[in-house]
Every structure is written in structure tokens, then in C-alpha cells.
Amino acid sequence: MPQRQAGSEPCRTQVFQGGLAAALMRCLFFLSRLTPPLLLLLLCPLPVRAQAPTASAPSGTPGAQGCPEACACTAGGQANCSGRALPVVPAGLSWHVRRLLLDHNRVRALPPGAFVGAGALLRLDLRENGLRWVHARAFWGLSALQCLDLGANQLEALAPGTFAQLRALRNLSLADNRLARLEPATLGALPLLRALSLQNNELSELAPGVLADLPALGALGLRGNPWACGCALRPLCAWLRRHPRPAPETEALLCVSPGRLTLSPLAAFPDSAFSHCTQPLAARDLVVICSLGPVSFLASLAACLALGSVLAAWRARRRRRSAARRPPRRPPDPGSAPASPADLGRVAACART
Ligand SMILES: *[C@@H]1O[C@H](CO)[C@@H](O)[C@H](O)[C@H]1NC(C)=O
Ligand SMILES: *[C@@H]1O[C@H](CO)[C@@H](O)[C@H](O)[C@H]1NC(C)=O
After folding, report:
1. Predicted TM-score of the model (pTM)
2. Which residues contact 219 (CB under 8 A, 6 or more apart)?
3. What's the 149 CA to ligand 1 centre distance in angstroms?
4. In terms of CATH, what superfamily is 60-225?
5. Residue 43 Cα, ligand 2 centroid: separation in angstroms?
């Protein structure tokens, strides 16, 4: 079966068998399992071909090669671990697993490298686990992952970098959680992400930059959040103007605070509505501004001192020079000798008489 067009419906893409990548993965798997590696390196293509016919029949057996004990696996690479009350991600994931259904379990936390070994995973479903905590490196190694569903959990926050490694991600759902904030660094730059579901969370704003590094994003689920109609909504409104109807309900999206703007449609805000908003300051700018006060004070003090001493020196020098240069213009004339105040007084008195 040819692989369906990769982007159109990433979550429903039927996982395909065969192909160069699959052969390579099996090759690596065999190498890791069996002992004489050099011999196997030579024979590697043989087991791959020999295994292909058996793989085409659905096994559906738990604990089959590369299939976690608790799950049912099919030849297509689907591991169905759905609804088995699992408290942790099952061990034994391998390169064979392309689609992991872990929904409706009890996985409350994802530790670092939770899916290590499942590097060929394309789709991961973690809905309805009561998930509260995801380590920033929980998804490390999933460089092929296209579709991640974390919907209907209890997530309140996500660490920076949580999704930054998932460079192939096309569809991410964080819907029906308790997220009150989403930082740009949580998503990072995801060049292929087309659909982001944020509906039914507790978001009142999207930090500037969250949507900036998602160039392929076309579908954005926003409903069911207490959007605040303040300056912080500006980047989102700008994005909405550039992407008409990113979700069917966009026209009906309302912001719910502050009072005077309560229940205004989000998509209807022109940029002029934000003309009173100053550009938000980054932390670095704040540090610069705060240190600018004392630094400029000290600098101006130093400048005044320097200028003052330069001026004083210059004047003293000028005085010294003019004193040195003052020529003995005329021979000293007793009549025109520098008059002391007493002399002047006497002159004035003569004039009066
Ligand atoms: C993303 O995945 C969800 C299911 O997890 C699906 O309902 C939705 O249609 C997908 N979005 C796109 C654009 O493929
Ligand atoms: C996964 O297994 C459960 C039963 O354990 C079944 O109800 C469900 O339909 C299966 N899902 C898929 C996609 O095969």
C-alpha cells in the first residue's frame, strides 16, 4: 500500500509496511539482539526479507517481537495499549511500533526518555490518562512523530522545550487540559505543525512568539478558553487576521474580560484596537532599562567631574599663559602704575574737587 500523502491527515495515516527505512530499522533491531554482529551485518538483508511474509499477517498477539507485554500489536506497527489501566508507559517499545495507542490509561507522569526505543513512532495517543506532569525530555528520540494527542488530561503547565525536538510533528492536541500559560519555548520551532488544538483550557492570552515559529500552522483550536481582551491578545488577533477561519468556530470566539469588552468576538479586533498598547518588553529589555538609571547617573556624575576638572585646568593654564605673555608694554610709568583701590579713591576725590 503506498503511503498516503503524508501531511493531509497525519493522525489517520495508515501505517505502511516495508520501505528502505523499515528495512534499516529491522536491521538495527536484529543487530542489537543477536551476538555475532559482524556476521549479521553481512546477512542483515536476509532476515529482513525472510520476515516480510510473516509480518503481513496480523499477529495481534501480546508480547510479540517488539510489542509491549500489555498491548495488542498488529503487523502494521500499531500497538494497542488502550484502556488497560496502565500506570506507566509499557516497557518493550521498539522500532516496530509506528502507532502507539495509550489512551484511557493511568499514566500520570512522563519521565525523561519515556518512549526511548520507539524512534519510528509516527502517532502517539495519550488521551485521558489523568496526565499531570511531562518532563521536558519525555519525548526525546521521537524525531519521526507526526501526531501527538495529549488531550483530556490534567496538564497545568508544560516545561520549555517539551515539544522542541519533535521536528516532524504535524498535529498536536493539548485540548481539554488546564493550561493557563503556553510559552513560546514549550513549542519551539515546529516547521511542519499544521494543527494545534488548545480548546478547553484556561488560557487568557498567548504569549507573543508562541505562533511565530509555526510557519505551516493552519488549524488552531481556541474555543473554551477565558481569553482576555487586553494588549496580550494582540499577537493572536494578528495571527487570526492573517489566517481566516483556522477552525470552524473562529467567528464565534469571544473574549471574556475585562468588563467593558466582555464577550467581544476575537476575530473582529482590528490592529487599531491595540494602538494604545506598547510593545511588550522582554526580560532582557527590562534589565537594560533598570540598570540604565543608576549607570547613567554615575556616568553623568563622572562626566561632570571630568568636564569640571578639564575646564579648571584649562582656565588655570590660560591664566598662567597670559600672565607669562603679558609684555612689559611700556616702561613702567609711575603715573599709570596699576592703581590700588586707595589710589582710585583718591583720583575720584580729585575729580570731584
Ligand atoms: C489532528 O488530530 C486529531 C485527532 O487526534 C484530528 O481530529 C484532527 O482532525 C487532526 N487535524 C488535522 C488537521 O489533521
Ligand atoms: C484497541 O483495543 C481495544 C480493546 O482493548 C479496542 O476496543 C479498540 O477498538 C482497539 N483500538 C484500535 C484502534 O484497534
Report:
1. 0.66
2. 194, 195, 196, 246, 247
3. 9
4. Ribonuclease Inhibitor (3.80.10.10)
5. 37
- Tens digit of each residue's pLDDT (9 = 90 or more) over 300-347: 788 878 888 888 888 888 888 887 776 655 554 444 444 445 444 443
Give CATH 3.80.10.10 domain extents, the chain.
Answer: 60-225
Residues with C-beta less than 6 Å from any ligand 1 atom: 9-11, 147, 149, 171, 173, 194-195, 219
Average pLDDT along the chain = 76
What's the pLDDT tens digit per position in 105-123?
A: 999 999 999 999 999 999 9
| Nearest ligand to the CA atom of 78 | 2
pLDDT score of 286: 66
Please state the φ and ψ torsions of residue 54, each to the nearest 5 degrees: -65, -35
The pLDDT score that the predictor gives to residue 303 is 84
Query: What residue owns the CA closest to ligand 2's atom 1?
Result: 80
Burial 127-159 (b: 16+ CB within 10 A, else e): bbbebbebebbbbbbbebbbbbbbbbbebebbe
State the SS3 of 162-198: CCCCCCCCCEEECCCCCCCCCCHHHHCCCCCCCEEEC
CB 121 within 8 A of CB 98: yes
